[in-house]
């Protein structure tokens, strides 16, 4: 009996040791293969500079997408530079930066012959609200704070007040330039004006604080935030442009699908109170343009309004201002990928 056990040990023990030796090797081999596969799939990072007018919720897809690692997954090491839009567009034209998020300013420059193209739009509905003093109404409004006379904020304020029956030929309305939405909010809080045109989070900060919501421009069609590049960029750095568009689309989609996570992000990164963050998210979600695209009729209307403002009478082809071909190509590729 003892001899039989000895023999079994001689057979079984080597097999057991061999199995133990082979198992880690198999696991190690699988892990190595996975790592190699991951490195093949991981794209090398390319430094990309983007100018924005301000760190605002209008441009949330850039900030959130960067924090979430979406841009890095697309091979983009995104450097967001806050700079006044006219200066940013000049820097873009000179090749000092790669992209601008100021779609409206970029399109106006393109209409004047600057070789730039708007490639997609974060919003095609405006996120402005007209906020008045506590207990106020449209009849009490005589002074309105806007970021700039002739700006999109000014246009929105005029449109909202017109709906409220204000702005006629004998109406006494004064628009006061503050340079930024933050300063418009400060002017309202300091009672320097009767009303201010605001965007999130300032809209929510004011209304939750008891200030009067006189109306909004959420259904008004125009472009607010997007991606602008040099025309040459589309050919010379085609894959980089596609990577940027893909990252923005993915960020937009993630934002509208993950409310709790995004609200938490707003609280932390924008230093917002929970109620303000939640209310601001609701406004942002309502106006975000998850497709990045724009209807042809709306685009033509936007361009015509820009031409009137700039007193341009020449017939300018749309494709000299906007090029949505790569956006539509990327969307088609993403849709095909999601169907698999």
Notable features of this structure?
14% strand; 340 residues; alpha/beta; globular; 3-stranded parallel beta sheet; 10 strands; disordered N terminus; 5-stranded mixed beta sheet
Low-confidence stretches: 1-40
Secondary-structure-derived class: alpha/beta
SSE arrangement, N to C = HEHHEHEHEEEHEHEHEEHHHHHH
**What is the CA-based Rg, rounded?**
27 Å
Gross morphology? globular
Total number of helices: 14
Set down the secondary structure blueprint.
Elements: H1 2-41, E1 46-52, H2 60-68, H3 70-73, E2 76-82, H4 85-93, E3 99-100, H5 103-111, E4 116-121, E5 129-132, E6 143-146, H6 152-163, E7 174-177, H7 181-189, E8 195-198, H8 202-208, E9 212-216, E10 226-230, H9 233-236, H10 238-257, H11 259-269, H12 274-287, H13 296-310, H14 325-339
Parallel strand pairs: 1-2, 1-3, 6-7, 6-8
Antiparallel strand pairs: 4-10, 5-8, 5-9
Helix pairs in contact: 2-10, 8-12, 10-14, 11-12
């Amino acid at each position: 009996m003892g001899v039989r056990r000895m023999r079994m040990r001689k057979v079984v023990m080597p097999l057991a040791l061999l199995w133990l030796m082979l198992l880690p090797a198999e696991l190690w081999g699988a892990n190595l293969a996975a790592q190699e596969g991951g490195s093949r799939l991981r794209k090398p990072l390319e430094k990309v500079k983007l100018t924005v007018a301000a760190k605002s919720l209008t441009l949330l897809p850039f900030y959130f997408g960067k924090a979430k690692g979406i841009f890095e997954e697309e091979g983009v090491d995104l450097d967001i530079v806050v700079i006044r839009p006219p200066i940013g567009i000049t820097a873009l034209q000179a090749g000092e930066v790669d992209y601008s998020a100021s779609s409206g300013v970029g399109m106006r420059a393109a209409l004047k012959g600057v070789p730039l193209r708007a490639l997609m739009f974060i919003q095609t509905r405006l996120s402005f609200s007209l906020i008045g003093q506590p207990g106020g109404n449209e009849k009490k409004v005589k002074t309105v704070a806007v970021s700039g006379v002739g700006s999109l904020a000014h246009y929105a304020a005029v449109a909202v007040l017109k709906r409220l029956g204000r702005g006629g030929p004998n109406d006494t309305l004064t628009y006061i330039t503050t340079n930024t939405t933050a300063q418009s909010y400060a002017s309202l809080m300091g009672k320097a004006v009767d009303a201010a045109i605001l965007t999130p989070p300032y809209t929510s900060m004011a209304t939750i604080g008891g200030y009067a919501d006189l109306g909004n421009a959420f259904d008004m069609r125009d472009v607010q935030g997007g991606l602008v590049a040099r025309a040459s960029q589309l050919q010379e750095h085609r894959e980089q442009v596609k990577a940027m568009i893909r990252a923005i689309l993915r960020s937009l989609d993630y934002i509208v699908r993950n409310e709790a996570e995004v609200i938490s992000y707003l609280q932390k990164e924008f230093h917002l109170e929970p109620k303000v963050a939640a209310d601001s998210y609701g406004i942002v979600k309502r106006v975000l343009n998850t497709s990045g695209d724009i209807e042809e009729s709306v685009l033509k209307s936007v361009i015509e309004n820009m031409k009137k403002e700039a007193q341009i009478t020449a017939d300018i082809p749309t494709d000299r201002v906007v090029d949505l071909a790569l956006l539509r190509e990327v969307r088609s590729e993403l849709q095909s990928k999601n169907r698999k």
